[in-house]
Design a protein that fits this description.
About 55% of the residues lie in helices and about 15% in strands. It has about 375 residues and is an alpha+beta fold. Strands 2, 6, 7, 8, 9 and 10 form a six-stranded mixed β-sheet that branches.
């Protein structure tokens, strides 16, 4: 007769930990673009700036015509000679108006100011407006060059499902997968239909996140353990845990059936949750029993680059490259091309005029000779 031992297990009344399904992605890449020159302001701001510039030209023209008709003398320019003595000369033509507006927007010396009171009042406010706009633009532009914009990454399961990210599901047991597969929610239906199921340890899923545009769905504790156990500091810094989560599981501690310690342990376990003792224990356990042995093994095997600890200062200390100032070089190249085109057009115009004059003279001489000979 066979006798099989029966073990009775009991579970603590208060939960020890909670885990849930979440997903992790990389922090995205920095966006380098020549159009960054326009990013300091949005479309509405650019429209307002262009409209304000056009309106200022209209106000200039109106005030000049009005003061000229009233005989106030607003048509004169305020300038200075070589000795710094103020002199009035020329008139406020359209060329002077455009030059004044453009130079003030580019923070350049305008070279002259109006003499009439109305124009001087308007110019004072216009210069203050350009001072604020140009200062804000420069400060924002420097920030965008030094710290380019990051790509937008999905933060929720819905954003992940409808993004261009490939999705992997780390299958540790069937309960979570079956729950998502049985759901009628459109987000979960789309994820189940398109995601890749990763079995085993699941390290491949996490490595794809570091290397490609990939989102890995798994239990939060599994992701934390694999990250601390296998990835270097530089790779860990690339991971971003999504704030969204689903399929929560509350877990307790198992005891031997009818254990005399269960009642007292439950009492003390309830006190640990508000004081976050369990989180502290988990963090220390990951560092002492997982992270430190991993780094020691890397040092022993000569993998010093992976074992080196990095910080925020290391990630932000990289020097500026051409990609950071791509817009400035694009504007420079455009200026060179426009300058050459202007040079060629002027030379063609001048030499073309000379050629036309020469041909005209030749034709006139030939005609005169022919008529004279007749």
């Amino acid at each position: 007769m066979w006798v099989f031992p029966v073990y009775v297990m009991d579970t603590s009344d208060s939960f020890f930990d909670v885990t849930y399904l979440t997903f992790v992605t990389s922090q995205g890449e920095r966006i380098f673009s020549a159009s960054a020159l326009f990013w300091p302001f949005d479309t509405t701001m650019w429209i307002l700036i262009v409209s304000s510039t056009g309106l200022s030209l209209v106000v200039f023209k109106f005030l000049i015509e009005a003061t000229n008709r009233l005989g106030i003398g607003g048509e004169k320019l305020y300038s200075s000679d070589e000795n710094g003595v103020a002199t009035g000369k020329d008139v406020w033509g359209l060329e002077h108006q455009v030059n004044f507006i453009i130079n003030s927007l580019l923070d350049q010396d305008t070279g002259f100011l109006p003499l009439s009171g109305p124009l001087r009042c308007f110019v004072a406010f216009w210069l203050f407006f350009t001072l604020v706009i140009t200062s804000v633009y420069r400060s924002k532009l420097v920030t965008l060059m030094a710290f380019p914009v990051m790509q937008q990454i999905p933060r929720t399961f819905e954003e992940l499902a409808y993004s261009d990210y490939k999705v992997g599901f780390m299958k540790h047991g069937d309960s979570a997968y079956n729950t998502l597969a049985a759901s009628s929610d459109p987000v979960y239906v789309k994820l189940i239909a398109e995601m890749e199921v990763v079995t085993g340890v699941g390290l491949d899923c996490l490595e794809k996140v570091v290397q490609t545009k990939y989102g890995c769905i798994a239990y939060e504790f599994s992701l934390t353990y694999l990250r601390e156990r296998n990835l270097s500091d530089s790779d860990i810094r690339k991971l971003v845990f999504a704030p969204d989560h689903t399929y929560n599981i509350w877990t307790g501690l198992n005891f031997e059936g009818r254990s005399i310690y269960k009642k007292n342990f439950d009492k003390w376990l309830r006190l640990t949750r508000p004081m976050y003792f369990a989180d502290i224990w988990e963090t220390r356990d990951m560092y002492q029993n997982v992270r430190t042995p991993k780094r020691n093994w890397w040092k022993e095997t000569g993998r010093m680059e992976r074992a080196r600890e990095t910080s925020d200062e290391d990630a932000e200390s990289a020097a500026l490259t051409v990609k950071h100032v791509l817009g400035a070089f694009s504007v420079f190249c455009a200026g060179v091309i426009i300058g050459l085109i202007s040079f060629l057009s002027e030379n063609m115009y001048i030499h073309g005029s000379l050629m036309i004059n020469m041909l005209t003279r030749v034709l006139q001489g030939s005609c005169s000779y022919s008529f004279g000979k007749r």
